[in-house]
Amino acid sequence: MKRIMMIWIIPLMALLAGTGAFAHGTGMHENQDGMEMDHNMVLPHIVLGGGYETDLVFMNPGSGRDVSGTLYFYGQDGSPLNVMYNQISQVSINFAVPQSGTFSLKLGNPDDTQQIAWAVFINSDDQSDTNDFNMYMGDHLFASIFYKRFDTNTQQMATQVGVMGMRFMSGQGMGYGMMVRNDEHNITGFAIVNTSDVELTSTLTLKNPDGTTYAERDLTLQPGHQVVDILSNFFTGIADISTFSGTMEIRTDQEGMVPLGLVNTDGIQTAIPMVMIPDSMDHTGGMM
């Protein structure tokens, strides 16, 4: 089997959720730690240790000011996670990104046991921007994640890959879409985190190229919980998607969902850009 950076876990058994209409929320929900989740940026999937060196790079283009705040790390169960940074184990890191500049964080130790994390950047200076259409994402910060994998026997770098910058959402969106391609060269994966303080159920719907539904399932996450796996494992017992090509819609009826698509092509992994589903927008740039 191809080695990929997704961590194998047993997908959570889902509970049935009502569908109804889907829209955007206000971005004012709280996470499992009681933090207000407006003006923030969520990184829904980070790999630490296990032969990997992890480098988070934050960019601040076009905001017109420095952006400062705190990056908080959590494990897959939503509890604070100690992360090695500057040879110090810590659950949060304060930093500032200068106007039009970047800031890099080298995290973890390749020799340590592999951990899966997610993180949220809380801006210390919440300022609304009339030009951002209320879609607050770290007040204009973007993030990329770069991984180097080292051979455990020789300690030489074996591969290097970048999971490039989505402007990760604050958990305000309630409908996303992603491309799916599974074949002899490609394996599609999926990560999702519930950034809210209540149980969240999302519906995963695979769509054929002609727009018809191929398979569907519900996935329930407890507050602060994250799950990641190859997409086929999410649909075990529902449908064989080992050679499926099409799209997947991820929908919910409450705030807090932050999904991320992943694809591994012949051993090289990157992120799949998520797009807002048009029927969850009011088509004037604002929220419904």
Describe the structure.
This protein has one helix at 231-234, and strands at residues 40-48, 52-59, 67-74, 83-85, 88-90, 92-97, 102-107, 115-123, 142-150, 157-163, 175-181, 186-194, 200-207, 213-221, 226-230, 245-251, 257-265, 268-272, 275-276. It is globular and about 45 Å long. The strands form five sheets. Strands 14-13-16-11-19 form a five-stranded antiparallel β-sheet, with no helix packed on it. A four-stranded antiparallel β-sheet has the order 1-8-3-6, with no helix packed on it. Strands 7-2-9-10 form a four-stranded antiparallel β-sheet, with no helix packed on it. The termini are far apart. The protein folds into two domains: 40-163, Hypothetical Protein Tm1070, Chain: A (Sandwich), CATH 2.60.290; 175-278, TM1070-like (Hypothetical Protein Tm1070, Chain: A), CATH 2.60.290.11. By secondary structure, the chain is mostly beta strands.
What profile does the largest beta sheet have? 5 strands, antiparallel
* CATH topology heading of the largest domain: Hypothetical Protein Tm1070, Chain: A
Our count of domains comes out at 2
CATH class of the largest domain: Mainly Beta
List segments where confidence is low: pLDDT < 50 over at least 5 consecutive residues.
1-26, 132-137, 164-168, 282-288
Q: What is the mean predicted local confidence, pLDDT?
A: 78
Shape: globular
Helix percent reads under 10%
Secondary-structure blueprint of this entry?
Elements: E1 40-48, E2 52-59, E3 67-74, E4 83-85, E5 88-90, E6 92-97, E7 102-107, E8 115-123, E9 142-150, E10 157-163, E11 175-181, E12 186-194, E13 200-207, E14 213-221, E15 226-230, H1 231-234, E16 245-251, E17 257-265, E18 268-272, E19 275-276
Antiparallel strand pairs: 1-8, 2-7, 2-9, 3-6, 3-8, 4-5, 9-10, 11-16, 11-19, 12-15, 12-17, 13-14, 13-16, 17-18
